[in-house]
Specification:
CATH class of the largest domain: Alpha Beta
Mean pLDDT: 93
Distance between the termini: 45 Å
Helix content: 40-55%
Low-confidence stretches: none
CATH topology of the largest domain: Spore Coat Polysaccharide Biosynthesis Protein SpsA, Chain A
Number of helices: 11
Strand order of the largest sheet: 3-2-1-4-7-6-8-5
Structural class: alpha/beta
Strand content: 15-25%
Order of helices and strands: EHEEHEEHEHHEHHEHHHH
């Protein structure tokens, strides 16, 4: 069987230190090096590649001036030569068989055009911070995303390039949620997605609550971008979004079996607090304010 060509696309924004670890892991992939390329898209025009970053021979670094990781990914897509496109982030460390297992998953499941892989969290120590406790429950539940919405996040997603040719690129005006929006378009066009447990990248859990708050704001801005509302409808949606996230309790119980009851309550409180921040940001952006990037 002929080896499939793969393009790995990685957006980066002032994150050369963590990108170095990502590129190092990609240089050790079990998949043949001459069958995949890496495109790093620098999304900060004022940046140059530090001398400390070792760039693999099959990697090139290009620059996208328009702000936003989806704009960066779109540029990478236009430059890609692979029949399969793989996406990850600069703070992710793929396992050695990441690409090989993704290609194998496509070959074993010919009815699927997209693959969502496992995102395995790692922590700074055994004693978890409040943010890490939250991440342990809610971060990157790819299997749930695939089952419920037919979606997958771009921290670990593969797709045949022809899917992008058919449904179009990511919406580059979104600073968050663009992977979900694109996934819905692909799903509605009949392009099935499969969750692959052995297609693994490692991702650091967020350590500080401020990191979760910044993400919640980005999510709110992204939701405002693809669910445009005005007037009374916008206010009504805001009030609806302020409801306590009762449905989250089931997931907290299922994934928090090793946590004390006080920790589970804390995680639920953080979930509610972040949902309010997201709702407020969605309202703010819906009223015409600029979306937050960081």
């Amino acid at each position: 069987m002929q080896t499939k060509t793969v393009t790995i696309i990685i957006p980066t924004f002032k994150d050369w230190g963590r990108l170095s670890f990502c590129l190092n892991s990609l240089s050790k992939q079990s998949y043949p090096r001459d069958s995949f390329e890496i495109i790093v898209v620098n999304n900060y025009v004022g940046d140059t590649v530090p001398d400390t970053v070792e760039v693999p021979s099959n990697c090139r670094i290009i620059t996208e001036e328009k702000p936003g990781s989806y704009a960066a990914r779109n540029l990478g897509i236009t430059q890609a030569t692979g029949t399969i496109l793989g996406f990850t982030d600069s703070d992710c460390i793929p396992d050695e068989d990441w690409i090989k297992n993704a290609v194998d998953a496509f070959e074993k499941n010919p009815g699927f055009d997209r693959i969502a892989g496992r995102i395995r969290l790692y922590f700074k120590s055994e004693k978890l911070t409040k943010a890490e406790l939250y991440e342990k429950i809610f971060a990157f539940n790819q299997d749930i995303y695939v089952e419920q919405d037919g979606s997958g996040v771009t921290a670990n997603m593969f797709s045949y390039k022809h899917v992008f040719d058919e449904v179009g690129p990511f919406k580059d005006n979104l600073l968050s949620g663009g992977d979900y929006e694109w996934s819905v378009r692909a799903r509605n066009a009949g392009h099935e997605i499969k969750y692959a447990e052995d297609v693994i990248v490692n991702h650091p859990a967020r350590y500080h609550l401020n990191e979760l708050i910044r993400k919640a704001k980005r999510v709110g801005g992204g939701q405002a971008g693809f669910n445009k509302m005005t007037g009374l409808k916008l206010v009504t949606q805001f009030l609806y979004d302020l409801r306590p996230p009762v449905k989250s309790i089931k997931l907290i119980i299922a994934k928090g079996k090793g946590l004390r009851m006080s920790q589970k309550v804390l995680v639920f409180y953080i979930r509610y607090y972040l949902s309010v921040i997201t709702a407020r940001e969605k309202l703010r952006v819906g009223m015409g304010k600029p979306a937050a990037r960081q």
